[in-house]
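[Automated response] Your request has been received and processed.

Submitted sequence:
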Amino acid sequence: MNNNSVFKKGAISGLLLFIAGAIILMGIITAEIFYPAGYTTAYSEISDLGATRPLPNSVSYQPSASIFNATMVIGGLLILAASLILFRTGKKWFFVLFPALLGIGILGVGVFPGNNAFFHPVFALLTFISGGLAAIVSSRMTQAPFCYLLALLGVITLSFLFLSTVFIPILGDGGTERFVAYPLIIWMIGLGGYLIGENGKG
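Generated structure:
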């Protein structure tokens, strides 16, 4: 494979990943802006922006729900596209698998909002686990000290996910979930920028 072609594909993959992270972050912020009073980062889950859990009745508010769900669908598709392009650069399968699963998870979160009591938790869990692993594995694609930062973001995500019962009394459901989700958004933007810089030269 032509080296210039590999570099260009790597830069495009990074660009898509960067855009996905930015869109997801700004989409969440925008959905929060339009959500009615009572939504808090401490006690409201991120997915409540799309629709709350059916306990017993799910609630969704427009335009927050449409903004959030569309953001997740677009972000998931961009990450999937970035993963496919990264695969075509010749990267090993484990560099591509976890980001691809992350894209599928985020896409599923948008397609199946919080009012879907079965599929939404499945895709949310897929998002968090695969995202944390993607961040850790991707550290092997980069140089020190940046590689340590990527790995740390993955460890933070997985730690707050699997030790959530420890952190929820301190940070609340919403606060704990944000310590799971936001490191992944930082990872997308960070790794995306790295790939653009490394592969966009010349």
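Summary generated for your ticket: Helices lie at 3-34, 64-87, 93-111, 119-138, 146-162, 164-199. The two ends are 17 Å apart (CA to CA).
If you did not submit this request, please reply to this message.
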